[in-house]
Every structure is written in C-alpha cells, then in structure tokens.
Amino acid sequence: SWISQAAPGPPGRHMKASRTSLLRARLIAAAVVPLLLAVTCALLPPASNPAFAGLRTSHAGPRLLRRAADNVFELPPDNVVQAVAKAGPKVTVADVAAAGGISLDKAKKGLVQLASAIKEGANLEVSQSGELVYVFPSDPQAALSAASSAAAAREAWENAKPAVFTALRVLFGVALFASIAIIYSAIFILSTSSSSDRDRDDRRGGYDNDGYGSGGGGFGGGFGFGGPTLYFGPSPFDLFFYRPYYTYDTRYEYYVEEQKPKMGLLESVYSLVFGDGDPNYGREEKQLAAVASLARKNGGVLTAEQLAPILDPPVGPQKSREAINVDESWVLSSLTRLNGRPEVTPGGQIVYVFDDLQTTAASGREDLRRGATEAKILEEKEVPFSMAEEDQLTLAGILGVVNLLGAGYLGLQFSSLPAGIALGGFLGFVKAAYPALVAYAVGFVGAPALRYFGLDKKNAEIEERNRLRREWRNTLESGQADGKLAEARTYRTAMRQVGDGDSVYSTAKGAAEQASSNDMADFDRRMGSKA
Fold first, then answer.
1. Tens of pLDDT along 84-113?
2. Mean pLDDT across the chain, nearest whole number?
3. Structural contact between residues 102 and 92, judged by C-beta atoms closer than 8 angstroms
4. 241: which residues sit within 8 A by CB, 6+ positions away?
C-alpha cells in the first residue's frame, strides 16, 4: 500500500542494526587502510635513488608528487596552439601575442611548452640580432596530439564538449517534464486515496486507519498504470533540430542575430533559465590582439585616441581634454601585457611605445597580416535574454509555472495527512525528494526573473561603453588629434624581420655544419667590407 500506519519496532532491533553497521565499517577499514598504505609507499621515492638524496622521506613524497604532476600535465595553453596555427609555422613571440591576444610573457612560456611537447617536430632558430624564432609543423595541434596523450585527450574533450553540454541542456529540459510527471502523479494518487477513504467512511460510518489508501486508486503498487496520461511537450524529432554548439566560445562562434539556429523545446527550457552565454566571450583577448596588430601597423607606437575605440575608456574625449590632470590609466592593462612604455613627446603629449612587438618571422606583408586582428573600433554586443524562439520560451515558461503550482499544492496535501501516517513506495520517495522538487520549481521561475532585470543593467553598461568608443573614434576621424599623431610618428621603428636567411643557429642542423657556414659568411663579409 502507498500509505500505512507507522508501527514502532522492538528496541533490540535498532541496537542490533547499529552493532552490525559498526562491524561492517571496521571490516571495510581493515581492508582499505593496508591498500592505501601500499599505494602510498609505492608512490614515495626510494631511498636508494640518488635523485632524492638529502630529502626527508616525510616531506619528499607529496612535494615530489606535485612536481611530477606539474611536469606531466603542463601542456601549452590552447590559445597559444591556435595562435601558432594562425600565424605560423615560423613565428616569434610577438607574432603569437598579436595573433592570439596573449601577453608576451604567456606567449613566450607557451611557445617553450609547445616546443618541448612536440620535441623532434619543432625547431629553434637564433637570428644574428639574438632573436628567437620557433619553427613548428604546419598543423601544430595534430603534432601536439600525436606527441602527447594528455594533449590528445584535451583535444578530444574540446571536440566533444559541444555535444556533451548540449546533452546536459537537453537533460535539464527533461528534468522539468520529469518533475511535472512526479508531482502530478503524486497529487493524483493522494487525491484518489482520499476520495476512496471518504467513500468507505460513508459506507461504514467511521474512519478506518488500516484501510487508508490501501487501494491506491487502482495503481496496484506501480507507477503510471491506470492513472492519467501526462504526455505533453516536445516531439521526439526535436532532437534533430538542436544547435550544434552549446554556448559562445573562441573556437565556435556562431552568434549571428539574423541566422539564429533554432532550438528544440528541451534545450529552450535551459535557455529560459540560464540563457545562452555571453556573446562577448573572449573580449579581453580580442582587445589585446587588436592593440598588438594596430601597434605593429603603426610602427610600434600608439596614442590614447587610437587605443580608446578598442579598449574601455571611462570617459569621452571631451571630458578627458577638460580634465586638469590627464588620466589614461585605462591603458595600463594592455600596456603591461605587451611590454609597452609611455613616452612624453617634446610637445608634452603622451604616446605609448611597443618595441617588443616589432619583430616578426613573416617573410612578406601578406604573411605579416595573416592572423592579425585589425580593427578601428571594437564594440560589444548586447547580451540577449535567450536565443530560443518566442513560442518555445512561452511554452517553457508555462510549464515552469505549472510545475511550481503543482509543487505548492502537493505540499498542502502532504501537510494535511493525519499525524503518524507513514508513506511508502512511490509516495515515500516523492515526500523525501519534495524539498529538491520545490527548490527546482522555485529556481526555475526565479532565476529567469533575476536574470531579466540583471540584463537590463548589464546591457545599459555595454551601450554606454560603446557610445564612448564611438566618440573617441569620431574624434580620431575628425582630425582633432592630428598634431598628437604627428608627434607619435617620430617614435616609430621599422619592423625587424628575423629568421629568413639571417639565422646563426638552428636545431634542425648540426653544430659543426653551422659553425663552418658561419665562419665562411663572416669571412665573406669581412672581405666585402675591405673591398
């Protein structure tokens, strides 16, 4: 039966159960502890190994394990690999920083990690000026995956991630239908049981505790037989219309307002509650890449008027000119990450010089432009409430309200049960899971409401930043900053092209061969200077 009168058991039974649980825990501990000790001893360094000489055994194990884990799993960042694929195969640190929107320090570290991971597939060249040039295979990602199983696993996860997260979104939608089915099935059972009891009371003239709910309304101890059909919702064919990607990403940018991919109803449920991510994902990297590309195009020197349409200026150009003290602190983040420095011109203007960006391994102008992100202005996109169709959102919202109302009514029915009634079977499960069902129902309705009001403020801030960027761009195009730009041009430096015929050392060649070649080149240069 679904509902039965609770009967107290003998006290000895609980004491026996406690002793049994305690005995079981001791047996498990006796079996597991020796195994853990054996594994720990196997992982600790042997005392005879000279590599661990002078280390205390009590502290060497954990420290050594952490160091080994760092060495094993220290893969080059994925954005560095993508930047090399975009700007390569022969690159300098500046090329990678400009192509991937990466700081020079991170680009340098990532290139070393990538070269170390690929090993024989990568080479290093040193130019006559001392610049380092990295030479990678034409497909660095494939070479990295072939050389490292950890990199292959990461690439497999990156490829599978869209499908995995799309499946999770679908499961979230399925959870709504499951919640509705569970709640209203429990309501139906309780209502049927209560109606059956009232009929028996009318016939017998009294209340029978033992008979309360014994019939279960014809369910026969099961769930879903003889009850109402609660099938409403998406067609199974909706699975064929789900979007291929789950959110905004640097690898998968699909957001085009005029060509929004249509969602199925199940995925629209998730979109209603959590949205579809931020269309400005990776904005800082795009800004840094644009700054680096613009600096290289302008001889390694920029002004605030050129940087403002790309970055996030706090005020417009008019207020900036009216201020007594010039505050251009909003350029510091990009300046430090690209090793730039401020310079004051003879006319008292501030310009920003990026010397370290003026090296490239590109062989020509077209190669130099490859992977560059040239932009006069970078405007942010407004964050939409959802990318789902309006009819799908409406249906998902109605289902959420239905679920919330059902959860509230079910709580009233549970609270109206007589004291001392124990629920078993399906109803016992529903009562135990009722707090989770209520939390899901309330969160399903509350989260979209909070997100809706939060998006208004967020989009207003985005529009304000875009307005300021447009003002700075108009100032630049109007010619008001021409005098400052003319002074900045005096700080320009030519792009230093390295790695194309001027290398003095390469790991792809033997040391003896390169020494002989360099000696002959130096002899010819000396003879030519004397002639």
1. 999 978 999 999 999 999 999 999 999 999
2. 76
3. no
4. 262, 263, 264
Quickly tell me which residue has 């067609």 as its tokens. 235
- 522 with 148: CB under 8 angstroms? no
Pair 183, 406: CB distance under 8 Å: yes
**What one-letter code names the amino acid at 98?**
A
SS (H, E, C) 503-522: EEEECCCCHHHHHHHHHHHH
CA–CA gap between residue 507 and residue 126 (Å, rounded): 9
pLDDT tens sequence across 411-434:
999 888 887 778 888 998 999 999
pLDDT for residue 373 is more than 90:
no
Give the helix ranges, DSSP H, for 205-278. Answer: 265-274
Tokens (6 digits) for 451: 């997100």
Mean pLDDT lowest among 130-139, 274-283, 417-426: 417-426
Question: Rg for the chain (alpha carbons), in Å?
Answer: 35
Banded model confidence at residue 474, pLDDT cuts 50, 70, 90: very high
Q: Three-state SS across 64-95?
A: HHHHHHHHHHCCCCHHHHHHHHHHCCEECHHH
DSSP assignment of 145-166: HHH-HHHHHHHHHHHHHHHHHH
48 burial (CB, 10 Å; 0-12 / 13-18 / 19+) is exposed
- pLDDT over 90 for what percent of the chain? 44
Residue 456, pLDDT > 50, answer: yes
Locate 243 and state its tokens.
């979007």
Q: Which whole-number Å values give the CA distances from 96 to 113, 156, 465, in the listed order? A: 13, 24, 28
Tokens 């510091």 appear where? 332
The conformational region for residue 496 under phi > 0 = left, psi -120 to 50 = alpha, else beta, is beta
Which token pair is 52?
Answer: 């661990």
pTM strictly above 0.85: no
The one-letter code for the residue type at 371 is G
Q: Which helix (H) or strand (E) holds 526?
A: helix 511-530
The amino acid at residue 152 is A
So what's the pLDDT on residue 7? 46
* Calpha distance 333→524 (Å, rounded): 47
